[in-house]
Specification:
Length: about 80
């Protein structure tokens, strides 16, 4: 619920069930670009929002095309013999 709570905190008095997909997409982009959230955190937020709209409000499936931050892959500094 903490993930969905962040959405509620940011929208304030705006009715959550009136949020359009474009507004939600803007929210996710804000989280990625301004709050520098990790891929795991963004995925949690997307899943929480999708659950609320699809399971609680019984709306159609939602898809968000947003650039998701990728986890930096670190390679070993040296190889052993």
């Amino acid at each position: 619920m903490a993930e969905f709570g962040h959405v509620l905190k940011l929208i304030g008095e705006y009715p959550v069930d009136s949020l359009l997909p474009q507004r939600l997409r803007d929210y996710f982009l804000y989280c990625v670009q301004n709050e520098k959230m990790s891929e795991l955190k963004i995925n949690g937020k997307i899943n929480a929002v999708k659950y609320y709209f699809e399971q609680v409000l019984h709306r159609s499936k939602m898809f968000f095309d947003i650039p998701r931050p990728k986890k930096l892959q670190l390679y070993p500094k040296g190889l052993t013999k």
